[in-house]
Specification:
mainly beta, 7-stranded mixed sheet, 6-stranded mixed sheet, globular
Length: 283
């Protein structure tokens, strides 16, 4: 890299092509390339590994003890497609940890929420809601969801989780150019539920993504992702930037609104815990 290139990069506050940090592990689809976390790693130190029921190790992800209910807004399609569908991976997701890689490998299908190009939901239209109700947590399950908002569209998508389950999932969000998407996740799990969610978003030119993670009252959450990047840079951002949301018991709802003039990526890795976790003193 020339001195001139480095000067331009510094002037634009652009990040290096590769971030050398233990807080930003290099992603891989190969499970073997991800070490089993011990809890001593910085990105895992607030995660109650004992409660994960082995999904961060080698526990089978072949369960199906859940039901999915869909309420789609007019004009929005929701369907189950195969793992070879072109929408899978369209956000640029590369599993950043072992749980995400295992979920990618074990998922047998993809739920696709597709908002058409130039589709605009007015005030009278309900949000598209996907409700997953767990019916048992003995066997762990793997899931993959893609939410795709077409260019110049405006919509709201709500993901609601209820009941009890042991779930490892990947969520991809793709927001087309000049589109506006509000993404809401509501964690209404039972006390014994385990939910590890890796969420990765790609936001197009002049597009806007509002991401709201809302657990019920008195439900603490933990994130094993670092708080690293600002969501609204003063100058042009790098083609690929990362964004991580951190939650604690003092903040019951996390909101992030992303506006970027160019395509970039946002990576969120969330682990939701329950009131029983606090009552046990974090064990």
């Amino acid at each position: 890299m020339s001195v001139a290139t480095e000067s331009v990069r510094d002037a634009l506050e652009m990040t290096p092509e590769k971030v050398l940090s233990h807080l930003h592990p290099e992603g891989s689809f190969d499970v073997a390339e991800h070490e089993v976390p011990t809890g001593r790693e910085e990105v895992w130190r607030f995660t109650p590994l004992k409660r994960l029921k082995g999904i961060h190790k080698d526990a089978a992800l072949d369960g199906d003890a859940f039901e999915v209910e869909i309420s789609a807004a007019p004009g929005v399609s929701v369907e189950r497609v195969g793992t070879d569908h072109e929408s899978r991976g369209s956000s640029g997701l590369v599993p950043p940890d072992r749980v995400s890689a295992r979920a990618w490998e074990a998922a047998e299908s993809v739920f696709l929420v597709d908002v058409p190009v130039e589709h605009v939901s007015d005030a009278s239209d309900p949000a598209t809601t996907v409700t997953l109700t767990g019916t048992g947590n003995e066997a762990a399950s793997a899931g993959h969801l893609v939410v795709r908002a077409g260019a110049f569209s405006k919509s709201t998508v709500v993901l609601r989780f209820e009941g009890t389950a042991t779930l490892a999932e990947n969520v991809e969000i793709v927001v087309g150019d000049s589109a506006e998407l509000t993404m809401v996740t509501v964690q209404d799990w039972a006390d014994d539920a385990v939910h590890h969610s890796t969420q990765h978003a790609k936001v197009g030119r002049d597009a806007s993504l509002r991401h709201v993670a809302s657990p019920p009252a008195m439900m603490p959450t933990r994130s094993n992702a670092p708080k690293t990047a600002r969501s609204r840079p003063r100058r042009a951002a790098a083609p690929e930037a990362t964004f991580a949301a951190a939650f604690d018991a003092r903040r019951l709802t996390s909101r992030r609104t992303i506006h970027q003039p160019i395509v970039h990526s946002i990576a969120l890795r969330l682990l939701f815990t329950t009131p029983a976790y606090l009552r046990r003193g974090g064990r």
